[in-house]
Amino acid sequence: MEGGRRVLLFTEGDRGAMIADAIEAGAQGVVLKSQADGDDLVAAVEAVAEGQLVLSPEVAAVIERDAELRPRLSPRERETLRLLSQGLGDRQIATVMDISQATVKENLKRIRVKYVAHGRPAPTRVDLHQRALEDGYDETTPDEDAPGGDAPAEPGP
């Protein structure tokens, strides 16, 4: 990591999506508060300081379980779902994303299809909001805030 910083996530949460996102963003370890005493936490801090990856079997199981259930949404689909989970209607989502309402409806249709394919149908807006909460799509993730949105990064010189 830049500047030699190492990150250890110490959390009560057992949401695999959140944990996976933290690791993807560069966290080198995750310790669940429910699974660690003081000695475990000190050992995890020392291990991360030495550059080791720290994931307990419980954390790995949470990530694996959620990865199997969480559909892969495109950045634009994630943004659509995030805005929906904030209570915005199709017209408002279209305005914020600078797309047509028809595109919003198409994004929502694709999102629903992906959830059905993962055995977690979400036929209503309330269901979609619940899926967004369960899977961590209700929060802004770094790639959604990056300039260019869902455009691939341009290769360097």
Automatic annotation (TrEMBL):
<feature type="compositionally biased region" description="Acidic residues">
    <location>
        <begin position="135"/>
        <end position="147"/>
    </location>
</feature>
<keyword id="KW-0238">DNA-binding</keyword>
<keyword id="KW-0804">Transcription</keyword>
<dbReference type="InterPro" id="IPR000792">
    <property type="entry name" value="Tscrpt_reg_LuxR_C"/>
</dbReference>
<dbReference type="InterPro" id="IPR016032">
    <property type="entry name" value="Sig_transdc_resp-reg_C-effctor"/>
</dbReference>
<dbReference type="Pfam" id="PF00196">
    <property type="entry name" value="GerE"/>
</dbReference>
<keyword id="KW-0805">Transcription regulation</keyword>
<dbReference type="GO" id="GO:0003677">
    <property type="term" value="F:DNA binding"/>
</dbReference>
<protein>
    <recommendedName>
        <fullName>HTH luxR-type domain-containing protein</fullName>
    </recommendedName>
</protein>
<feature type="domain" description="HTH luxR-type">
    <location>
        <begin position="66"/>
        <end position="131"/>
    </location>
</feature>
<feature type="region of interest" description="Disordered">
    <location>
        <begin position="124"/>
        <end position="157"/>
    </location>
</feature>
<feature type="compositionally biased region" description="Low complexity">
    <location>
        <begin position="148"/>
        <end position="157"/>
    </location>
</feature>
<dbReference type="GO" id="GO:0006355">
    <property type="term" value="P:regulation of DNA-templated transcription"/>
</dbReference>
